[in-house]
Amino acid sequence: MTRYGFRLKIIIAFIIATLIPFSLSWILFLTSNNYRIITESGKVNTSLITLLVFGIALAFIFSIYIINSIIKPLNEVTKSAQQISEGNYDYDITVRGNDEIGFLAHCIKKMLVRIKATLIVLRKRSDELAESNERLQDINTELEASLEQLKATTDLLNVSEDKYRSLIENITDLIWLMDYEGNIVFVNERFKQLLGYDETELIGKYMIDILNGDVLKLIFDSVRDIDANRIKIEFIAKNGKILYTDTGVKRVKENGAILGVQGISRDITEKMTIEEKLNKKLVELQLLNRISKDIVTNTDLKSVLNEVANQVVKISDVVACTIRLIDRSDLNKLVLKAAAQRVEIDCTFLKEIDKRRDITGKAIESKLPFIVKLKDSIITNIYVSTLYEKKHARYCLFNPIMVREKAIGVMTSFTKEPPGQPHIDLLASLVNNIAIAIDNAEAYDKLKQQYFYTIQSLVSAVEAKDLYTENHSFRVSEYAVLIADEMGYDEQFIEKVRITGLLHDIGKIGISDTILNKKGKLTSKEYGIIKKHPDIAVRILEGMDLDEDIMLGIKHHHERCDGKGYPGCFEGKCIPDIASIISVADAFDAMTSKRPYREVISFNKAVEELLKYKGTQFHPRVVDSFIKIYKEREKDLMELSEQNEERPWDIMS
Asked: Are 130 and 124 in contact (CB under 8 A)?
């Protein structure tokens, strides 16, 4: 139906309820006698009456239906209006249709949605207003309290203005005010006491003129986005000294416009000085601790001395530092062992100086530290002259190095200013550490010497049993050292390689001379006995507390890359590197030395054999390194292969 269906329903109901029965009655009245209720014979026409009653009933029912379809939506709309009036905005109108009632229901629905949305907004705003009202009440309360305080403060300030000014003038901090152009507007009396400036000297002057560095920009930047901040500021006193301050800065505003910056600066110069001294002392203690630890863990005297010299220059005002020790072969010579300088100069340290002709010898004789002011009469070499002229070194501190009350060397440090007592004490401590390091190094050298003599005895015992392997262990050791160095290993590992090479056949001391010196081919049983010598070596050396790498190198130097070696049948990467190096060195010397079962072969032939079994018996990288040595240093290898019996141990010692 259209929007006018409601009216049409009413018209139809009216027509059905009134016109149809009326029309039927008149039609019947005006028609023939056959359609009369009472016939001419006087009988009642029941059929016609029935038809009339049925027509009227049908019209009445249909009218009732149409009226009900009108009343029901009206009741629903009325009910919804009542619900809305009672505040139930969630009520759902079930009326459907396109007539006026449906349109009215649709409009009411839309109105409900808008009312609900508006109600939500109103409630939210109401809550916000309530919250704002509470805050306003709190603020109002605070304002009232603040106003009371302000009034009391104002009254107090009015009464105590003179006292306040006296407080400002007598406060221990610097109080200042500058405009946004950087001009000083106000300073308190403390500027006179701490910096030496009168108020009249500073008012109107640029603030930057009494600040150390580009601090003015820092001041403005610190309050660019916030009202107040804390920064470190250095003031320049009238006498040129620097005053370190911890400063609170704050923007000065009027009517929202920034007029300038005010500050309260507290003198922290003494605090900074103490902190600087503590930090310096901490660095010195850390240095002493580090060097002490280095002395305990590092047996390399040269690296320890270089570390001391470098650290002396690094943490102090020393321009250059040298450490010299007395030459054992010539007690009048002081040999340079370590040196460091703050900046490079076009001059080198003297390697040796004669203590009889140089003032350094005085430290040896006196056994006490002393300071000398440099001048032409005592500058005895070009290096000191260069430090004096180009690096402005004016003082020299000599510290004798004492071991068991005997002077064995001197540490010399050059400075621009006279060394203070803390500096002298620090160097004295370092010199004591140097003495300990030298003593440890000497003890280590003696122990190492005894260690090598022990090895010499063991190797000599083995080689005495096998007439054909004279100096074999030494040559294997030297070949292996060359290989390890070519492969880029560090000195510590190379030293392990050297010892492993010397001891790799020590297990043959437990093998029968008959088998070792047999000229013919070994039987399977004899070869099986020979294969036991790595395990025998490990058992012999277990009590010597040798490094694990050395023990692994000795035990596995007969392993092969293809897993056919002994005693562990290791393959490839499972074989220790040190064992792979010894394997190549051992094989090369065996091929180029006379043996009971064959004659010597040439170096070229031996190299061909190494290449032939590269990757199966020998580690490829080790072979490549040896081949490179052979190509570049064949002469050295030839000389090494011809070493006599005594010379190897002279070199080792």
From this structure: no
Tell me, which fold does domain 163-267 have in CATH?
Beta-Lactamase (3.30.450)
CATH assignment of 275-444, among 3.30.450.40, 3.30.360.10, 2.60.130.10, 1.10.260.40: 3.30.450.40
What H or E segment, with its residue span, contains residue 337? strand 330-341
What's the CA gap between 499 and 549, in Å, rounded? 10
Contact 508, 533 (CB under 8 A): yes
Return d(Cα 424, Cα 594) in angstroms, integer: 64
How many Cβ atoms are within 10 Å of 408's Cβ, its own excluded? Answer: 19
Q: Which residues of 44-55 are buried (b: 16+ CB within 10 A; e: fewer)?
A: ebeebeeebeee
CA distances from 249 to 189, 271, 399, 506 (A): 19, 20, 50, 81
Q: Is 0.90 surpassed by the pTM of this model?
A: no
Cis peptide leading into residue 567 (ω within 30°): yes
Residue given tokens 């407080």 in the structure block? 167
Nearest 5°: the CA angle 387, 392, 393 is 60
pLDDT digits (tens, 9 = 90+) for 152-210: 776 665 665 555 556 566 678 899 999 988 999 999 888 888 899 998 899 999 999 99
User: Tokens representing 201?
Assistant: 């000297």
Query: In a 10 Å sphere around its CB, with 0-12 CB exposed, 13-18 middle and 19+ buried, how is residue 653 labelled?
Result: exposed
Q: How far is CA 317 from the centre of its chain?
A: 31
Backbone angles phi, psi at 319, to 5 degrees: -80, -40
The count of other CB atoms within 10 Å of the CB of residue 163 is 11
Measured N-to-C along each axis, helices 603-612 and 620-641 cross at an angle, to the nearest 10 degrees, of: 170
Under CATH, to which class is 466-652 assigned?
A: mainly alpha
DSSP one-letter code for 93:
P
- Alpha helices (H) along 265-319: 269-297, 301-315
Contacts of 185 (CB under 8 A, 6+ apart): 177, 178, 179, 203, 260
Secondary structure class of 289 (helix, strand, coil) = helix
Q: Is 206 helix (H, G, I), strand (E, B) or coil?
A: strand
